[in-house]
Amino acid sequence: MAERLDTPKEIRRSFLPRVQRNPDTVGRIAERFARFMGTGRFLLYMSGFVVLWVTLNVVGAKSAHWDAYPFILLNLFFSVQASYAAPLILLAQNRQDDRDRVAIEQDRLRADRALADTEYLAREMAALRIALSEVATRDFVRSELRNLLEDIGDERDTAAEAATRDPSGR
After folding, report:
1. What is the Cα–Cα distance from 65 to 59, expressed in whole angstroms?
2. DSSP 17
3. Using an 8 Å Cβ cutoff, are 68 and 57 in contact?
4. What sign has the CA pseudo-torsion 7, 12, 16, 22?
5. How far apart are CA 48 and CA 55, in angstroms?
6. Is the pTM of this model over 0.70?
7. Which residues contact 154 (CB under 8 A, 6 or more apart)?
8. Residue 128 to residue 55: CA distance in whole angstroms
């Protein structure tokens, strides 16, 4: 089959096969692994594995002894497990730090918006107070009506006094 001349040829620089297409895959696996290693289930499984290992090597049949008393092979397994666990846990922590950093930035932006909204509302309330200082308030209107009623009452009283002095109404 003829190759296309308008596309570059893919050059493989490694003899190892490509394991992943998505660079986030290893991070997600590391998080699952770190999450599992922090559970009681993992501790129970690991304790059961050690008890089974020691039991089979100490009490088991003569042919079942593959790891003598200092349990060198078991120590090797733990060393390999720890050598993989530590970097994977660190990778999971780094990913969590990145998520925390993004969440903190979003919280800061949200707080800035809330502060700006609060300042805007405070300015609007101040403007309303200034505008209302020129508008008649309920108490002002009541006092004016009370004064007007008193003035009307005083005029009636003076008119009544004048009528009693001069019955002709003059």
Report:
1. 9
2. P
3. yes
4. negative
5. 10
6. no
7. none
8. 83
Q: Which of 12-26, 49-63, 114-128 has the lowest mean pLDDT?
A: 12-26
Per-chain mean pLDDT for the chain: 82
Q: How far apart are CA 60 and CA 103, in angstroms?
A: 55
pLDDT at 119: 95
Do 64 and 58 contact (CB within 8 A), yes or no?
A: no
Give CA–CA dist 41/48, Å, rounded: 10
Phi, psi of 138 (to 5 degrees): -60, -45
SS3 of 47, please? helix
Amino acid at 46: M
The continuous run of DSSP H or E covering 104 comes out as helix 72-133
